[in-house]
Amino acid sequence: MAYYDKENECMDRERLIELQSERLIWQVKRMYDKVPLFRERMQEKGLLPEDIRSVEDLKHLPFSYKQDLRDYYPYGLFAVPTSEIVRVHASSGTTGKQIVVGYTRKDLDDWSTCTARQLAATGADKNSFVQVSYGYGLFTGGLGLHGGTEKLGATVIPISSGNTQRQIQTMIDFGATHLCCTPSYAMYLGETIEEMGLTEELKLKAGIFGAEPWTEDMRKAIEEKLRLKAYDIYGLSEIMGPGVAYECDKQKGMHICEDMFIPEIIDPNTCEVLPAGSLGELVFTTITKEGFPLIRYRTRDIASLNYEKCECGRSFVRMNKPQGRSDDMMIIRGVNVFPSQIEEVLLRVGGDVTPNYMVIVDRVNNHDTLEVQVEMSDKLFSDDVKSVEFVEEKIKSQLASVLGLAAKVRLVEPKTIARSEGKAKRVLDKRKL
Amino acid sequence: MLVKQISVFVENKFGRLAEIISILGNNNIDISALSIADTTDFGILRLIVNDPNLAEKVLKDNGLAVKSTEVIAVAVEDKPGGLARVLNILKDANISIEYMYAFIGKSESGALVIIRVDQPNEAINVLKNSGIEIIKASDVYRL
Question: In angstroms, rounded to a whole number, what is the distance separating the alpha carbons of residues B75 and A59?
Fold first, then answer.
């Protein structure tokens, strides 16, 4: 049984709840002083910081939403002066504009603790070589696992995403023992290695795969192809990044780093807190974060919490793999995509008229594909190929820049996309997950 | 002088072309000339017909994306160098050709070429001044 910091991970639950209460009180007090939006929402509810005396009072606090990050873009929700922010990351918002999150030096250190816990739980130690094949950059995947690897004292191979041949060569030559990437990319790597006949050369022991939905069947297939044990990891940029919750070797749910994040499950319609074990929307409160703290953040992920003590000895509550979303967000190749982002691009290209469209998501050879079908109109149509292809290209390049993801664009004849009464069904997700 | 050409957006789907052309046939529309520009996913069907306004209407009524464009119909001597002469006149006048298509044997003067240029009126003037026969729209529709 390997832990990164056993005294915290296995802390007595009573002590943990005390600690959460202390930290929550501290966080509410400082946010009331430093984040105007939070103060306004507290005042609307007639609450003062001193009304919050323990985690029991969490349910009285106001929620926060993804839209807040857009409304206060870029730095309006930070709780420290930007001089104390040492790094920013970004992810997709519900529309064209991205959302920004900021970290102080201590926040980065805490985040590294989260991912170090995950790595240790998979058996990594100072002698391990961790190949981080998540993208490095504004996306939190790469640098998140990178920080944990260094903090654990293992050797990080910061290869980032892409270039499969080089990934495989590096993995073999450098003797990678751990691999971190999206599950679909792990599948793809596994298949390619198999085709190349290099399976015997692998030294992999474990892999940490997250940032997109995957199934138990995929887990088995990845484990077989890459000859490792596959672990699930959960996180979101707004709360921290990967490592908010991590899987132990019992693989019966992911342990939430409860000394930093308090989870709740609510009914997304009534917003009532649901009893332990219920399936509902996951809500997080960050109790140690300095730079960009959030109180009762609505993740829109549908999950449940299991408070039973895990055989691994950790006292942190376990969440199951999210079962879906309470909004229309899709996760494609690890990137969050909202239909509204696509609509915005089409509106712009269509000259203030949104052409009828359909988004088709599929998984071909374990690779997510995104196709946007756009109905031709007299307005977009022209008698020469160049102009029509220009329309197609324009949609494609704007989608790529707004979504951060390549999409196939297909122009179709008018009125060939089914119209539905009431709310149009714009997305067809053919992935079987 | 300018001829009205009807362009239709056609998805690259089996049988689609036959369906679209049938719409014209069912409405008693006679096709004088046509060309298809194709890409992997779609094609643009360009038509010269006896009644362009009716063609535009029935195609639109059938839910197609349709555009009408003005093109020039030129009679070209059906002998080596005939087409080259026309093209050189346009080139010398700095007129760009977007696309063109030809068909042989219907015009009394030889081959008929449909040309879409960036400056149609200018093109007609220089061709006429060089003695090239421009076919009137009403004559083209009758072919």
Answer: 84
Say if residue B25's pLDDT is above 60: yes
ipTM for the predicted complex comes to 0.84
Q: Is A103 helix (H, G, I), strand (E, B) or coil?
A: strand
Test the A interface: residue of B7, B8, B41 with most A CBs within 10 Å: B41
Q: Closest partner residue to B11 among A380, A384, A413, by Cβ?
A: A413
End-to-end CA distance of chain A: 31
pLDDT 10s digits, A133-159: 999 999 999 999 999 999 999 999 999
Q: How confident is the model at residue A425 (pLDDT cuts 50, 70, 90)?
A: confident
Chain B residues inside the 8 Å CB shell of A385: 37, 39, 44
Domain locations along chain B: 3-68, 70-142
pLDDT tens profile A344-391:
888 888 776 778 889 999 988 878 899 999 999 888 899 989 999 999
User: Looking at beta carbons, which residues of chain A come within 8 Å of B60?
Assistant: 378
Look at the alpha carbons of B132, B133, B136, B141 in this order and tell me if their dihedral is positive or negative: negative
Å between B50 CA and nearest CA of chain A: 19
Architecture of the domain spanning B70-142: 2-Layer Sandwich (3.30)
Contact A389 B39 (CB under 8 A): yes
Closest CA to B76 of B99, B96, B48, B105: B105
The residues in B 79-118 lying below 8 A from A, measured between CB atoms, are 98-99, 116
Domains of chain A: 6-327 (3.40.50.12780), 335-429 (3.30.300.30)
Q: What is the pLDDT of residue A343?
A: 84
Identify whether the C-beta of residue A303 lies closer than 8 Å to the C-beta of residue A266: no
Any A CB within 8 A of B5 CB: yes
Residue A424: pLDDT band (50, 70, 90) is: low
Domain B3-68 matches domain B70-142 at the CATH topology level:
yes
* Domain B3-68 superfamily per CATH: VC0802-like (3.30.2130.10)
